[in-house]
Hints:
Layout: E1 6-7, E2 12-18, H1 32-41, H2 48-67, H3 72-81, E3 85-90, H4 103-115, E4 123-124, E5 128-129, H5 135-145, H6 153-173, H7 187-199, H8 203-215, H9 231-251, H10 267-271, E6 278-284, H11 308-320, E7 330-337, H12 339-345, H13 361-364, H14 368-378, H15 389-392, H16 395-401, E8 404-408, H17 410-417, E9 428-434, E10 439-444, H18 459-470, H19 476-487
Parallel strand pairs: 7-8
Antiparallel strand pairs: 1-2, 2-6, 4-5, 7-9, 9-10
Helix pairs in contact: 1-7, 1-8, 2-4, 2-6, 2-18, 3-4, 4-5, 4-9, 5-6, 5-7, 6-7, 7-8, 7-9, 8-9, 11-14, 14-16
Amino acid sequence: MLLGPVTERNRVIDHKVRVYRSDEELPRESQLAWKIAAVAADPVEVSDDVTNMVINRVIDNAAVAAASLIRSPVVAARAQATRHRFSPGSTVVGTTSDVRVSPEWAAWANGVAVRELDFHDTFLAAEYSHPGDNIPPIVAVAQHVGAARALTGGHVVRAIATAYEIQIALARTISLHEHRIDHVAHLGPSVAAGLGTLLGLDEETIYQAIGQALHTTTATRQSRKGEISTWKAYAPAFAGKVAIEAVDRAMRGQTSPAPIYEGEDGVIAWLLDGPDGSYTVSLPGLGEAKRAILESFTKEHSAEYQAQAWIDLARKLHDEHPELLDGDQIESVVIHSSYHTHYVIGSGANDPQKYDPNASRETLDHSVPFIFTVAFQDGSWHHADSYARERVTRPDTVRLWRKVSTVEEPEWSRRYLSVDPREKAYGGRVEITLKDGTTIVEEIALPDAHPLGARPFARDQYVAKFRSLARDVLEDEEIERFLAAAQRLPEMAASDFAELNFTARRGLLASVPEPEGLI
């Protein structure tokens, strides 16, 4: 039973969500977790444009996973996963497809590979999200049970569309970061919902899985604060892994804390807006297509999304003002942008690490002063070279970097949260003041690769991104084989799901020793 007024514009239903005392009646059919489950269980068809975007995002995930294959967090996650061999099991990116592991561990290893470089898709509203994080656990489960359940690629596409729909719906109105909760708390429920769609589960089972997935994926936001650690790549992989486990338990008849969102001791009451908190979450009505993936967008550059437009503007300024590149003539650089940019990746975060040339890569890709400086001086951005220690510590870069600051400007904050695509903005205005008093002012609203930007990404750009990032780690034949497979995902039989994996060049994985651990 779905309650609430139907908004005719988008044919969605607005669900009012608030905290209930334990002595107040709240039927499960009126709980947000049940309403999400009902959306997941609705067997609506996927439109061609959504299907094409799902394919794009599968290619996008594979691109950034390939580029990260021998990075330390990915090596460690892969080592853990391959200790859990299983049949039929799921593939682990980089290894041959006969290496099969338990699906939750495949989701773990592949999720870390996708997330490591901070280089895949994004949706930004009240909360941040990377909805491409839903894809590794869904594909892992499809590979494991696909044959037994007679799944096709069409089932996988539908599941991914559901997962995007749910994570984006939650991110649109429920802010987690405001309460210092990590954004993957929206990912656990979306993965559970996507798996419910994939497996054709009933509302009751999906409801229980969503409750467990949310309960076990709420953690503090310290993973994205101060000196950011390698856990940043693991956090969404962990959410995918435990969501699979939650679905497994729910399918075995096990129940979950409820009401997980609205309860007196639930998530809203104690982790979010408190006992008086309330939200309006908009979800598709019965029979309504799941199209939210079309509202998300990928990255052209390996950095936090709020930095994408600043890289594009810095490259433009590099070409227009070559005389300023060493920074000696510059007195200050002030970036006027949204609340989110200023307080998350700007000087408003009050993280001295964002100005430290010895900071971790994870910290630097969340520092817009650093990112703007390097993109301005180099006129380009590279997922590895721009973060190389010798590049980061260059004296003229450090001097200029420490002249860059950010401020919040209310109008840019308003545009960041606007629901009108004509107003939506993830950029701002930069003011460069020279020592002679001259001021250079430029602004940019959207990254070039945004759907409404100067050079929107389409299939050709996703394919080019994969070829570019994979060329040093995959053989040419393997690159083309994977691209062909990904583009026929909707027509795949379950026996072909392993083709969504790719194998590294001979000797590449062995070139990096596996770290010793407990397992």
